[in-house]
Amino acid sequence: MKVLVAVKRVIDYNVKIRVKADHSDVDLTNVKMAMNPFCEIAVEEAVRLKEKGVATEVVAVTIGPKASQEQLRTALALGADRAIQIETDERVESLAVAKLLAKVVEEEQPGLVILGKQAIDTDNNQTGQMLAALTNLPQATFASEVAVQGDKVNVTREVDGGLQTVALTLPAIVTTDLRLNEPRYAKLPDIMKAKKKPLEVKTPADYGVEVASRVSLLKVESPAERKGGIKVASVDELVDKLKNEAKVL
Amino acid sequence: MSILVLADLHEGALAGATAHVVAAAKAIGGDIDVLVAGEGVQAAGEAAAKLEGVSRVRVADNAVYAYQLAEPMGALLVELAEGYTHVLASASTTGKNVLPRLAALKDVSQLSEVIGVESADTFLRPIYAGNAIATVKSDDALKVMTIRASAFDAVSNEGSATIEAVDTVIENAQSQFVKEELAQSDRPELGGAKVVISGGRGMGNGENFKLLEGIADKLGAAVGASRAAVDAGFVPNDMQVGQTGKIVAPDLYIAVGISGAIQHLAGMKDSKVIVAINKDDEAPIFQVADYGLVGDLFEILPELESKL
């Protein structure tokens, strides 16, 4: 079974973001970029499926500027076999990403597609679900456990009330939550080997998909800063403040 | 304007978040319908009919919608969305699971986790874990949006909408419900509680969360946790407050043994009053706390419980 993994280049999760002075967007110049953490979990899961003998090939795909090839090389170093970059400098929305991925699914015919549940830049949490709808494949979002059994996959999902398990008929779409696995670090020899693995470059036009955005970003602002308050010296003082000053007890 | 709100359910009953999503629909303005879809959901439909501002409740009560699986729910929404200008759902795990399918099949974009309404086509939403707030305008004829419930005050229960049955049945052979393990608790749900008390890695183990439960029972509070406490296996995932867990905005939030990682702050920094209890007086949580108390939580918590 072939497994397709989608990855996204985003701002490194440790970086404190800055809003541009003209409020047009977040400032990404000279900022450290990395693979979206949920995508790392997706790559790890695919590689583990290959190590278990469930998957025969892992294909990583990304949509983004030339620099996003770095994230594909990371995926290849982690164990993916080959990669596809769909190159564009546009701000591509989830729907267009899902349309492009749907074309890749049509071409590659994977048994399983694994994506991160959301990217930590736009926080949309949409692409996997949209891809499932467009390809008419079943979906399991927010996965904390994935078990392939014959022509089905059982996925345990982190839902608001606890955990839910669903069985999907393959091929299927899965999106990862935090506790699915702990991604490994790429070793130096694997990073060297990854440079020689195949990486194909395409464009949205190759797939006949229009990526122009339908949502205009009018303004980006910093949230209202919360000011630190005071330190109290004792439990008595805390209870008194909550009762008489904040009036929340 | 004509708005369809997908009701959030919790074990077949109407979830509190729905009243907040209806409030967001009122801010947009226009006729508001609520769709209640599930199995054995007549009572939930009646509860939805009482939400102020709702004119019609549409009830799809059928076994195919049990557990609100994404595939039949998405297809049902595609059938029913005709004629509406907006379709809204709470940014719960169900809303997030289902709504993007509707958007994709209608060939429109989705706006996720909306926290403010500027006009019928312009909205505010957090990006980068709430470290920036974007104002976005949608040019799509149908606006599909998930709403962050904590950002809108719930509407009252003084409405009286008409209720009508939806007969549409969507067959689904692609996905199957296997089982669920839901947390059982008599305490209020995290998303709607007026008071939340959360524990972090500093709690040491799951057993020590009992120290929080005693206080929670006195305050009528919900109990939450940081990602570190969930990752360490102290407590289950449904208790996680943060960017990827639940977003809460109670009147009082008490953070115990939580250092205050950005990930956690994203889930609670809109609370009205924040209290932090931590032994490290340099912990970042104190930068957002209204009242900080530095000390050993194992001494502070029993004392606090006895003095409430």
Segments of chain B where pLDDT lies below 50 for 5+ residues? none
Strand order of the largest sheet of chain A: 9-8-7-10-6-1-4-5-11
Strand proportion of chain B, as a percent range, falls in 25-35%
Largest interface: A-B, 76 and 89 residues
Helix count from the secondary structure assignment of chain B: 8
Order of secondary-structure elements of chain A: EEEHEHEHEHEEEEHEEEH
* Overall number of strands of chain A: 13
* Number of helices in the DSSP assignment of chain A: 6
Kindly report how far apart the N and C termini of chain A lie.
58 Å
Q: For the record, give the distance between the C-alpha atoms at the N and C termini of chain B, rounded to a whole number.
A: 49 Å
Query: What spatial form of chain B do the alpha-carbon principal axes imply?
Result: globular
Helix and strand sequence of chain B: EEEHEHEHEHEEEEEEEEHEHEHEEH
Residues in helix, % of chain A: 25-40%
The rough form of chain A would be described as globular
Q: Biggest β-sheet of chain A, characterized? A: 9 strands, mixed
Broad CATH class of chain A = Alpha Beta
What structural class do the secondary elements of chain A suggest?
A: alpha/beta
